[in-house]
Amino acid sequence: MVTSIFISLLSAIVLAQAAVIVPGASWTDTAGNVIQAHGGGFSKVDSTYYWFGEDKVLDSTLFHAVSCYTSTDLETWTRQNDALTPISGTMISASNVVERPKVRTQTMTDLIPKNQNTEYVMWFHSDTSNYGAAMVGVATAKTPCGPYTYKGSWKPLGADSRDEGLFQDGTAYLLYASDNNQNFKISMLDTNYYNVTEEVSVLTAAILGDKLNISQVYYLIASHTSGWDPNPNKVFTASSLAGPWSSQVDIAPEDTNTYYSQNAYDMPLGTNAIYMGDRWDVSALGSSTYIWFPLSWSSGLPVIVEADVWSVDLAAGTYTIATGTTYEAESGTLGGSAELLTDSSYSGGKAVGFLGDGGTLTMNNIVGIGEAQWVSLYYANGDSTWRNTTLSVNGGANVVIQQPSSGGGHVIQSVPVKVNLKNGANVLTFSNGQANFAGDLDKIIVYTAT
Length: 450
Ligand SMILES: *[C@@H]1O[C@H](CO)[C@@H](O)[C@H](O)[C@H]1NC(C)=O
Ligand SMILES: *[C@@H]1O[C@H](CO)[C@@H](O)[C@H](O)[C@H]1NC(C)=O
Ligand SMILES: *[C@@H]1O[C@H](CO)[C@@H](O)[C@H](O)[C@H]1NC(C)=O
What we know:
hydrolase; 47% strand; Glyco_hydro_beta-prop_sf; single chain; elongated; 4-stranded antiparallel beta sheet; mainly beta; Glyco_hydro_43; hydrolase activity, hydrolyzing O-glycosyl compounds; binds 2-acetamido-2-deoxy-beta-D-glucopyranose; carbohydrate binding; 1 helix
């Protein structure tokens, strides 16, 4: 499904120190509830960021609410009133689909004024439960979180529109998967942002995406169409929105399927940007997690910087990646049917496999600082389905950590877990008491940043 980007000049505001960003963890809001803002879009009004997304708390693809969260640091989020809720008898009833909401207005300080109405205009993918209608929906409000007044759903310029994004650069554009997902289109919006007026570009590729204008080059970051499953997201460049667009280039190692995510949005950060994706959990959509990574232009083209624990400095337009202490799995004690695996793709050339179903791994002398700490598990899961592992700290109750397909038996990815470590040496036991196989464990990294 998709991505989105808008051009912003981040204002130099001084921010309070906040929490870290941990991709793939379960994120909670300031009330302690799990953040329900999947397929999100972001807007900024003065110094406040607004995160609009799909509330999937019912674990259903059907429309429940477009949520609205606010933050001044991108790390601490407060839930506000719902921006859009179902209206029976319309295309946004609770038996239809509303996905990937995006809001634009002229009143956003970081956007070039265009809409003369001082109105907030929300665009979203509007569809029936079988995704057969393929429409856009539009709603408006006088305040950022609304609630929004629904204006209608239709096919832009008479053509399909499924996964979509908005791009604003003096003029606003709809970016959308069209023609039965066979083409990707860019169409210009009218000055009120109520409708599209003309097609600007058609990429004959089944992709979805959003775009960034940096140094007069447009970067279109897009996902292929693969339902809820992740795929290797790509970047295309052009000096004009009308193209010609370059051929596609990976933004992450291809095997990892963009670290098991799909791009939803990309937010400028200084001379770089933030990749904001969804790791959809099809078995429990409301448990899907957010995968945000720094997107670095240091090589000339945007590339995801894999970061377990990181933070942004919005005033400086920079990001900082936390460092931790690495412990190799092979330095632990193998129990039961666990086996040492050897391959050059593993850190130190070795990993521990056949965990679960009787195989266990015990790692001693894991140094903690007496706090709830982030620990990242680097694992390989070559299955297309998810695995999981149990973890017990110092003989305490097991927690279960999900391990999505890593993209191959020798492709390593990380998943985070927050556990209480005591000051000094701790004992971590993996995969005890589970009948199913866990991923092969390469190493763990213990962080102190919280
Ligand atoms: C949007 O424009 C199309 C023509 O492309 C038109 O058929 C449709 O009625 C318009 N929708 C609205 C809500 O104005
Ligand atoms: C893209 O951004 C540059 C500034 O970096 C600006 O001069 C140019 O007009 C923008 N392109 C369009 C089509 O707005
Ligand atoms: C762990 O994975 C197995 C499949 O390998 C699955 O049957 C089980 O439900 C999962 N447990 C949790 C808590 O997700």
